[in-house]
Amino acid sequence: MLKLEQIAVTYPDGTAALNNITLHIQKGERTALLGANGAGKSTLLSVCTGIIQPDKGDVVLNGVKLTKQNRSTVWQQAGVVFQNPDDQLFCATVQEDIAFGAKNSGMNEEQTAQAVQTAVEKLEITHLLSRAPHKLSGGEKRRVAIASVLVTHPQILLLDEPTSFLDPRARREVIDVLANLPVTQLIATHDMDMALALCNRVIVLKKGSVFAQGLAKEILVDEQLMQSAGLELPLCCQKIQET
Amino acid sequence: MPKMQTALGRLNSTEALSEKNTCVHRLHPAVKTVITVIYILCVISYNRYQLNGLITLAVLPFIVMPLAEIPISAIVKRMLVALPFALLAAISNLIFDTKTVFFIKGFAVTFGMLAFGSVIIKTALTVTAVLLLVSTTPFTKLLAVVQAVHLPQVLIMQLTLTQRYIYVLVEEAQSTYTAYRLRAGNVKGVQIRDMGTLLGGLLLRSIHRAERIYNAMHCRGFKGEYPAQTIKKVSVTDIFTLVAALSVLAVLRFIPIAELLGKVLFF
Question: How many Cβ contacts (< 8 angstroms) between chains A and B?
Answer without folding.
Answer: 75
